[in-house]
């Protein structure tokens, strides 16, 4: 079992710690629904130290990323240091190996990838890196904490008053470094907030400081319902190596604007784009009672046309919602989902369900 | 919490013979702790004949769906509408107001074969 630097804090906060893909992490600290509401209404914090941070140095770091990922890091240059880019890491067939965030740093780039895919990501990235003058530095010396909610930034400023000006001016999807702390205005909840990296030795003290300033501990359970309401992908659900960005709502992070840029998966992606057998990502809202779950089949006019990739009960909307992958030809908004043999009516919507505390459909 | 007037099965349902000779059935405190915040329950219909071990409904939390198994045989005579309307009752009072349905037992002696509170406590550690 792997333990994050916040492990003692989880125990002290009465976290219900489970084995999450080999990491000891809290699923909740009592009530998943209360933690969810805390993030929508005020501020909550999530230990995300299991995620993989890799710093990439070297004179060819930019060329390396322009080849490695589907989005184009060249566009970060005009924003400057700290700017973040969301992207897919594609294989040669344009299947999604992982999704990631990359930050432009003074030394090169900082890459954040998923924990569950760590081994295969790193194998792949190292293989590609062989052809470039780059050096990869894993940063397991860092802890990472997501502080999310409408009051998140205000509460972090109360805990770190020396950051007041810089955090108040921080734009979405930009990070700022101060001493050994890295504050990024990013997140996975659909709310305003920060993802903060800090020395792992300071993790428990920082946790206690934020607790004192009214930031509530939130577990993996709330993290999942929040991201689902926000219409955000989870690796292994919405996307995997058999799914192209077209079918999982990631088309916007494939950048074809520079014709001369050759990134891995480009050719296969361009072929997939002109295929007649296309899928698209949508949201589903269950009209009656029950709960949509991943793997359930979606039907339109009695014909199977897709599958639920993530489903849950939405604590904010008090109905069941789901993300689904359905045939791109579907234009109606009425469908059914097979729940244990019964066809239940659902409404098809455009994602997300919730953004900044507001219903979006 | 796990009182001696209740019987248990390893699928984490409980049964209690009430004064009127009808048995109440619910999910155990341990089950609700594992499931977390409950959001939906689907119960058997009143009048349904149920056999021991049958899948007779579903209990869903935010994070997971869990089948509901009949711990005992008989005829369903009442379902708890309050818990259908507010499934969190089975979180807050799993052994009391959060009961799920009531059964007219086919054979009262079947209760003797179920787990005692002590045995169930030993099972869940």
Structure description:
The complex is a heterodimer of chains A (361) and B (125). Chain A has nine helices and 22 strands. With 361 residues, chain A is α+β, with helices and mostly antiparallel strands. Chain A has a domain at 276-359: Elongation Factor Tu (Ef-tu), domain 3 (Beta Barrel), CATH 2.40.30.110. In chain A, 47% of the residues are buried. The model of chain A has no long low-confidence stretch (mean pLDDT 97). Chain B has 125 residues and is of the alpha+beta class. Chain B has a single domain (6-124), classed as RNA polymerase II/Efflux pump adaptor protein, barrel-sandwich hybrid domain (OB fold (Dihydrolipoamide Acetyltransferase, E2P)), CATH 2.40.50. Helices cover 19% and strands 34% of the residues of chain B. Chain B is built from four helices and nine strands; from the N terminus they run βββαβββββααβα. Chain B has helices at residues 29-35, 81-85, 89-92, 117-124, and strands at residues 6-8, 13-17, 23-27, 38-42, 49-50, 55-61, 65-69, 74-79, 101-105. The radius of gyration of chain B is 13 Å and the shape is globular. The interface between A and B is medium-sized, with 17 and 10 residues.
Keywords:
heterodimer, A: 361 residues, alpha+beta, Elongation Factor Tu (Ef-tu), domain 3, six-stranded mixed beta sheet, 9 helices, 22 strands, 22% helix, globular, B: 125 residues, OB fold (Dihydrolipoamide Acetyltransferase, E2P), six-stranded antiparallel beta sheet, three-stranded antiparallel beta sheet, 4 helices, 34% strand
Helix content of chain A: 10-25%
Oligomeric status: heterodimer
- What's the CATH class label of chain B? Mainly Beta
CATH architecture grouping of chain B? Beta Barrel
How many H/I helices of chain A? 9
| H/I helix tally of chain B | 4
